[in-house]
Write a structure and sequence with these properties.
Immunoglobulin-like, 8-stranded mixed β-sheet, alpha/beta, about 525 residues, 8-stranded parallel β-sheet, homodimer, 10 helices
């Protein structure tokens, strides 16, 4: 998947070593040029290194980085198949003007490229394959003991999640007071006396390995670049601006070529007391500028939501549990931002004392469904008290809750839904209807426990898809979102206009329901 | 209130006539310079006319306009007391270089200046007096028969509303198929063959008169500059871009000096099929640029909400009835826009067939209260079927509904509330609490019919005002928002911490309630 080409270092000086080791790499894979270079002074500060990758009229410039032990690397994620050429650019003679060529071949079956925004409010892989976001959160899983990390990966391998949010920097917070296995800078952990001019390359090599491990599992890595859960303990939340910026350049140079990377500028940005809002605007502009592939980029809030209309923000990453307490709330941010809305934090399934960590599994699954029929995406997290202090939300490990199985059921429903994504059908009138009118409807009944549901389909608002019409035929299934069952309703429902706003069944049929909460009705058009 | 100075026209040419008629005008009143000028050609197209008004380092440039019959006017709303000087600027010699001086005196008691944004989410008059927005809608009241207009003004004189939304252009729509009393352009109404280069000055003189009439009643005029309720009948919804822009310049030159003007770029902008979103951005930039006083400026949506984060938009004017169905929804746009949110259209009290015009009075008042405790503002409208085709929402006349009396009650509550405005106290947890912690709380219980309410006050989120504390004392009143009663609860409630999130009464007191819906609890701190 990653093809590394290590070029011999031309110690003598003036001659330029042309790259002869042409190779192949798959589309959206990683082509890496590794070159020995200067070791005097501080390579992190003193050496600028980049490469231009060219195919026809297309030129992509990627920054390189110092990887320790005298080795410099520059990585490239080709977005097109065919022949590419490259040439390195550096003020250091050993790293300048190295040229080469390589062939980009079709991707392997499990490689669909990076995830992009699609259909305004939704996502898709670069090759067009649907991506129905269903994420979880383990803030610093990769900084725990090795065995725990491996356990987290095994858990993820069978869990329904296709995205995981985690932090680059270590975290210090309730339930997470242990030190990380590694530190991002050279220095003395005991005194937290860091040399901010010296990255700890092992830290970032390890981070990359975990991003690659996630990629193998088909999981997007939502990399959180800054967070407040430090409060000066290590001081990574209050570094000087120049250090912040250098850190961003470094992380992007290292990670941007991994196709499964998403950037989250910060977790709870407004709780970072030593930063101003303008700092995050600068960070966003840096990431947007540096990342040649424009991976998905957002920023997660505490109580103050960032301005997600800014052009470099690709989707709204929102913490607000209240917004998914019903579909009519969940939809509102879509109109404000006109971008995909991902409720990355809606409180967690668990039993800790904090009210953000004590949702029942039923409540968390309920919130996912509210968000789903509103045309948005919802995130999972789990905070069950544990003697070993290992809570999934912070450290990973194993999942103990009852929501993941139900989210796997939801995932199946999403995979069966229209590829374009589920849209609100009648957003300000009947927010419980999601779908793609008039072919597919998902009606979520939430906490109500009705014994039947009158079959009726709303007319979508002006200009929003084809309206239903008399004579159209539909099949209906009853979904028990908690007990994870799909029960087809016998027969076919045939539309007849009911009033100015609704179509019902021509015989007035109702759908029988079991009188339990958390039911949904799935309606699919039968094309004859 | 308006001081007009008509200068003699210097027919002879080269000499400049200095204004000798110095006068006085009150702050935020209108100082007008009227000058005879060219009548040859087309004065609307051919003559540029403006004036600079100066006081010390401050220079305000106001555009003038042709008012017919050979007369040109330029108007100025002084925002500072003291001596001002002016000089006119025009390519037409008769209108160029006229100078004068005048004195701006303190405003009369009922003149508080224009309304401005205050405290991020709220409004205040320029002199600092609180302005608690409570608006209504009569789209084309000023284009009905004279007697009906006068009746509308009489109704407004005793109604609770301090803002009214109405359109510059005539409207053609259900319940409003009559022709207007006047037309904005010269031309033939029968053939709708307009000369877009010739404004009908009588039309705009009349509009101004009605704005002035509203000002006398203490009512802000929310002037809607474009709307879709024409659909080509007259064609004012599909004029060429150059005509649109000239019209905007003309309206602003005429109206901007009226302190009670607000600009609404459009009603249901997205339903104007002949315009693009970029047209409205251009309109907004024109208004923002031309208006020397930067009156409040927004744009009202159909189903697609405008990007209210744009810098020239002062507040979010939103049509969305669903958003005020509960306080937890109403609050969400505040976070997205960080500006005042005015739900200018939430459906109307009435009984017509369209679902946007058949709210019960109870439901409309309920929506006002939901918006209020969420720190937003809500708009009124009324659509009761009538044989005379006069529905308040479109034509004015008399109010027939039951909501206005309850909105007058709400207005009293607002006037008694903190001047800074009501803020959500714990927005994503307990949206039914509005107020100003820890001094004032308004808890709205909506459609629930409880027989008691446990006295408890939430801790506001991090950094949002002073939290409540043990020992603080409060009085409580029970407000029946429908029956318009205020019932004090005897005794004082004394705080004691309840848990990590709430303070209750030290003796666990509850507030008795009558078991009816639409109740609110008002809690005020007793300072000893």
């Amino acid at each position: 998947m990653m093809r590394k080409i290590i070029l011999a270092w031309c110690v003598a000086g003036f001659s330029v070593l042309a790259a002869s080791a042409a190779g192949t790499v798959e589309q959206w894979g990683i082509f890496e040029v590794a070159l020995p270079g200067p070791t005097n002074g501080n390579p992190f500060l003193d050496v600028k290194f980049a490469a231009q990758f060219k195919q026809g009229d297309v030129t992509v410039t990627a920054d390189g980085f110092y990887d320790g032990d005298g080795m410099y690397r520059v990585r490239f994620m080709p977005e097109k198949t065919g022949e590419w050429r490259y040439e390195t650019v550096s003020g250091a003679r050993a790293l300048n003007g190295k040229r080469g060529a390589f062939t980009v071949v079709k991707p392997a079956a499990d490689n669909h490229g990076p995830v992009r925004v699609a259909n305004t409010y939704h996502f898709a892989y670069a090759d067009g394959a649907p991506y129905k976001e269903l994420g979880t959160t383990c803030y610093v899983w990769q900084l725990q003991a090795e065995a725990l990390q491996e356990q987290t990966l095994r858990t993820l391998a069978t869990a329904p999640f296709n995205k995981i949010r985690f932090c680059v920097f270590p975290k210090r917070y309730t339930w997470n007071t242990n030190e990380p296995i590694l530190y991002p800078f050279a220095g003395n952990p005991a005194t937290t006396n860091w040399d901010f001019t010296q990255f700890n390359v092992k830290y970032f090599q390890h981070l990359e390995q975990r991003v690659a491990d996630l990629q193998k599992l088909g999981i997007e890595a939502d990399v959180i670049l800054f967070h407040p859960y430090d409060e000066g303990h290590w001081g990574f939340d209050r570094m000087p601006a120049a250090v912040d910026d250098r850190y961003l350049h470094y992380v992007i140079a290292r990670l941007a070529a991994y196709r499964n990377v998403w950037w989250s500028l910060a977790n709870e940005w407004d709780f970072m007391k030593e930063k101003k809002e303008a700092d995050f605007v600068r960070f966003g502009e840096i990431v947007s500028h540096d990342d040649p592939y424009h991976h998905l980029l957002s920023i997660h809030n505490g109580s103050k939501i960032f301005n997600h209309t800014l052009p470099w923000i690709t989707h709204a990453s929102i913490q607000n549990g209240a917004a998914v307490e019903e579909p009519g709330r969940a939809e509102l941010y879509r109109d404000a931002y006109r971008k995909p809305v991902v409720y990355d934090e809606v409180k967690y399934e668990g039993n800790i004392a904090s009210r953000w960590g004590q949702l029942s599994a039923e409540e968390l699954v309920f919130r996912f469904w509210n968000g789903t029929v509103a045309g948005t995406y919802v995130g999972h997290g789990e905070t069950y008290k544990s003697d070993d202090q290992i809570l999934w939300w912070s450290k990973g490990g194993v999942l103990k809750g009852q929501s993941p199985a139900r989210l796997a059921f939801l995932k199946k429903v999403l995979d069966d839904a229209p590829a374009e994504g589920i849209e609100p059908v009648d957003k300000w009138q009947n927010p419980e209807y999601g779908g793609k009118a008039p072919d597919y409807y998902l009606v979520y009944l939430g906490k109500a426990s009705p014994t039947n549901w009158e079959f009726k389909l709303p007319k979508p608002p002006q200009g929003k898809g084809q309206p239903p019409a008399d004579g159209m035929k539909f099949t209906v299934e009853v979904l028990d979102t908690w007990n994870m069952t799909v029960t087809p309703v016998s027969g076919v429902f045939t539309l007849q206009k009911k009033d100015g706003y609704f179509y019902g069944d021509k015989d007035g049929r109702v759908v029988e329901l079991p009188g339990r909460p958390y039911m949904a009705v799935r309606i699919k058009r039968v094309r004859e």
